[in-house]
Specification:
8-stranded parallel beta barrel, Lyase, Ornithine Decarboxylase, Chain A, domain 1, alpha/beta, 9-stranded mixed β-sheet, binds ligand LLP, 26% strand, 427 residues, 2 domains, TIM Barrel
Length: 427
């Protein structure tokens, strides 16, 4: 068993997997399965790594709440000095519920509603990241109605070539729905400068997630810097931030992690030349490796020459393998020496419901516990109730302490907002 492959906060002790000072088996027995388990030391470590790498540049780290919005994770990041990036009124509500002040929030997203924008403006979010000329006009009008000055950033689509692990998570290429196309950005910036109720404080981009080639940041920054120079030459002096978005690569198998030194080397000269404060919006980088999904093998069976492990976690709990053909390392919680090849599938009534296909792992039987790694980002937050399955519990570990940080849903929760006896509203 390759100890070196394990995320540092997860290790084997006498053959059994532990998260920090707590055996995963104990967590599974106490809290049931499936369950997400988060290591706080991993989150602290990743935040320290990123902050350390950026130390020489004036910067703010705005965690992308979409990666994992659990309140305990948000509160932990807040305590470390991290800020947040949200993309819906719901995420803004989460951030406030976790104790973030409005001046630590950036509100982005391609389709914010007027109600969401008004909520953000009333609460004084630090930067509203604008993704279209239409949105800019609506923000100006809403801000006027509320008697406030909106602090806006422009999210630019720099239209560069983006290398990532999946097409669905590329966002900075020509024709993508995100951001203001780079050739329209100066026009929108000029308009922002003339509107009475907005102040243009940021220029930024987010070109994609799980970026396998850092060069795309450099390519995008060339375009942003040209824009910043052009905007300033119009007499705009309100710019404060250069936002490079998220996207840092995280290893799910044995790939190399993102080269932070090179990342900073690409960004630093632009920050220095523009004399802006850097904003980064990492999601996956801060939380992916901190989380695992613990699931129990319900049945082992043979079909068509394959050996199937049917687990109690399905695509409703972790959709990434099915949706992005994403690889997640899987290991038995109780290490055993012999190995076999399995399709690890869930209980959902779809053939696309799998955690891994043709995967070699420990030769486990029904009843065994499996640990699905690198599930801290885009795991629980993308889960659903499909097949009327209550969502799993989320647990946090800190040293040898652990806590339930979101309760397992119950069947009662599944029907709480519904009625079998409609109250007809008309006639
Ligand atoms: N900023 C913006 C504007 C974003 O849209 C995103 C992610 C981030 C920051 C954070 O990116 P990260 O550092 O996590 O790469 N569900 C997909 C990932 C979707 C990412 C969406 N945007 C997955 O499971 O791979």
């Amino acid at each position: 068993m390759g100890q070196g492959l394990l995320a540092p906060s997860f290790q084997r002790i006498d053959g059994a997997l532990w998260c920090e000072g707590v055996p995963l088996q104990q967590l599974a027995e106490s809290a049931g399965t499936p369950a997400y388990v988060y290591s706080s030391s991993s989150i602290r470590g990743q935040f320290a790594r990123l902050s350390g790498a950026l130390a020489a540049i004036p910067h703010r780290v705005h965690y992308a709440v979409k990666a994992n919005g659990n309140l305990a994770i948000l509160a932990l990041l807040r305590s470390l000095g991290c800020d947040v990036d949200v993309v819906s009124g719901g995420e803004l509500h989460r951030a406030f519920a976790a104790g973030f002040q409005a001046d630590r929030t950036i509100f982005g997203g391609v389709g914010k509603t007027s109600a969401e924008l008004a909520y953000a403006l009333r609460n004084g979010v630090h930067v509203l990241s604008v993704e279209s000329a239409d949105e800019l006009d609506i923000i100006d009008r809403l801000a006027g109605d509320l008697g406030v000055r909106a602090r806006v950033g422009l999210r630019v689509n720099p239209e560069v070539t983006v290398e990532s692990t999946h097409d669905y998570i590329k966002t900075g290429q020509k024709g993508d729905k995100f951001g203001i196309p780079v050739d329209q950005a100066l026009t929108v910036a000029t308009r922002a400068a003339t509107l009475p109720n907005v102040a243009l404080v940021a220029i930024g981009m987010h070109i994609g997630s799980q970026l396998t080639d850092l060069a795309a940041y450099g390519d995008g920054l060339v375009r942003l810097e040209e824009l910043i120079v052009a905007v300033r030459s119009l007499g705009v002096s309100s710019l404060e931030y250069l936002d490079v978005g998220g996207g840092l690569f995280v290893p799910y198998a044995d790939e190399d992690p993102a080269d932070l030194e090179r990342y900073v080397a690409l960004i630093r000269p632009v920050v220095e030349r523009t004399r802006l404060t850097l904003v980064v919006e990492p999601g996956r980088f801060l939380v992916a490796e901190a989380g695992v999904l613990v699931t129990r093998v319900l049945y082992r069976k043979r079909s068509g020459g394959r050996t199937l492990l049917v687990t109690d976690a399905g695509m409703n709990d972790l959709i990434r393998p099915s949706h992005y053909q994403a690889y997640h390392r899987i290991e038995a919680v109780d290490g055993i020496a012999t190995r076999a090849t399995f399709d690890v599938v869930g209980p959902i009534c779809e053939s696309g419901d799998f955690l891994a296909i043709g995967r070699e792992l420990e030769d486990v039987s029904s009843g065994a516990l499996l640990c699905v790694f690198t599930a801290g980002a885009y795991g629980y937050c993308m889960s659903s109730n499909y097949n009327a399955r209550p969502r799993p519990a989320e647990l946090m570990v800190d040293g040898d302490r652990w806590a339930v940080v979101s309760m397992r849903e119950t069947c009662e929760d599944l029907v709480r907002l519904e009625t079998a006896t409609p109250t007809w509203r008309n006639g």
